[in-house]
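Exercise 7.
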Amino acid sequence: MEGQQDYDLLVIGGGSGGLACAKEAAQLGRKVAVVDYVEPSPQGTKWGLGGTCVNVGCIPKKLMHQAALLGGMIQDAHHYGWEVAQPIRHDWRKMAEAVQNHVKSLNWGHRVQLQDRKVKYFNIKASFINEHTVCGIAKSGKETLLSADHIVIATGGRPRYPTHI
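Solution. The predicted structure, written as tokens, is:
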């Protein structure tokens, strides 16, 4: 186990709320750490910093919606004098790859923003030891103790799937 590290504020959760909280506290001169770990969903979904919205929610949905709008515009373009070769084809794999690349760039951007504000980031799953201390376990099994004067829980939520109806 790594030695205990002390902070003014420890934020559990790397989604939009947790990141905003951590960045603001750091800008106010506090020593801040963020811990974030995503337990893969039953379907195996996992992701990086930014939470549900960035990784599997709002952002990918809006990018896919934009792709659909572009398809509609291309189909209508001939009405406005544009000569577009027919048939129009869409490559789902290429679109999905572009969406994932954009999401990864946002994950990286969040990490850079934390570094710029001197917020320490830990990719660990945190469990409380007491009101000021958590034990974080990395994917490798390595344990890290973190303590803070204040701890914010910003983990969001996940649906629970019924086992029988």
